[in-house]
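User: Design a sequence. Structure:
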């Protein structure tokens, strides 16, 4: 293989990091994973991950054409402005990777943006796609015709901290009434426990709803309502034809999609609501999207291994 024949995508997480080396025609060459340790600087873990991944490749493989990274936090111009789970603030990730790898084309984006690229490509969808990952927090990203719309500060599409309930629940961001304060997995569990319910995770709350627990139903209804409100605002401004619900909470399936879809129609009586679907790539979305970021850095149409 020539020195410019492959890409590297990295899914940077608070508990682990995964990397994949993929040819520009979409063949995966190698994959590697390392835990993110609280005792070790995440940047050192990332450098080691990429070095070990490259060690799996033939000696004459050379450098990748580009490296794409999806990071859980606010990213702008290659700098991670804030990633609480990694302890990064104003972290010049792209510049540091250029120095450690010798690769010029480094594309760093929010992990929701990477997921949005992957989910859009998986469907072959043309037009606008709003992807909303629902997990420990709530995020979001916009893609139109396969191109990520990042905004001036790189935070376009971020629904989690859109205030939708005046005077509502306090949010970790310092504001109140945000979508994330109601619709994140963490918030769903917290609010159910506050109502006297018992739950280890969001799946327990969903099970309690199915079992007829009125406390769980009230928490779930408010989560779906807040989420629909956030999506309705984004739809009014950006007019996507498709909205995709992803992340761990999307495992609730139709118990999530159907009430959000119904509420969205109520909030948008003046127009047809966009199609609302559940994510199809699951845990692969972040890594597949990171490869897409690398491909975009070289202007290649490649989107997935």
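Assistant: Done.
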């Amino acid at each position: 293989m020539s020195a410019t024949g492959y890409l590297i995508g990295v899914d940077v997480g608070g508990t682990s990091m995964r990397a994949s080396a993929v040819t520009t025609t979409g063949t995966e060459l190698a994959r590697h994973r390392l835990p993110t340790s609280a005792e070790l600087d995440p940047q050192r873990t990332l450098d080691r991950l990429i070095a070990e991944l490259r060690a799996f490749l033939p000696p004459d493989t050379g450098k990748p054409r580009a490296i794409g990274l999806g990071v859980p936090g606010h990213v702008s111009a290659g700098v991670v402005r804030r990633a609480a789970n990694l302890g990064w603030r104003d972290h010049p990730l792209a510049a540091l990777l250029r120095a450690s790898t010798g690769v010029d084309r480094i594309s760093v984006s929010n992990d929701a943006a990477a997921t949005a690229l992957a989910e859009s490509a998986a469907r072959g969808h043309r037009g606008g796609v709003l992807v909303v990952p629902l997990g420990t927090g709530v995020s979001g990203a916009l893609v139109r015709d396969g191109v990520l719309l990042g905004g001036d500060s790189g935070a376009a599409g971020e629904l989690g901290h859109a205030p939708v309930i005046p005077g509502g629940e306090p949010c970790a961001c310092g504001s109140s009434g945000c979508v994330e304060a109601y619709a994140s997995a963490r918030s769903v569990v917290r609010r159910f426990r506050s109502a006297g319910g018992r739950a280890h995770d969001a799946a327990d709350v969903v099970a309690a709803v199915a079992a007829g627990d009125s406390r769980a139903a009230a928490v779930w209804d408010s989560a779906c309502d807040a989420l629909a409100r956030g999506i309705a605002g984004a739809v009014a401004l950006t007019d996507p034809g498709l909205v995709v619900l992803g992340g761990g909470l999307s495992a609730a399936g139709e118990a999530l999609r159907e009430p959000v879809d119904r509420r969205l129609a109520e909030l948008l009586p003046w127009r047809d609501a966009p199609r609302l679907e559940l994510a199809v790539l699951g845990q692969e979305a972040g890594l597949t999207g990171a490869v897409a970021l690398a491909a975009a850095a070289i202007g290649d149409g490649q989107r997935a291994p």
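Confidence is low (pLDDT under 50) at residues 301-305. The chain is about 35% helix and 20% strand.
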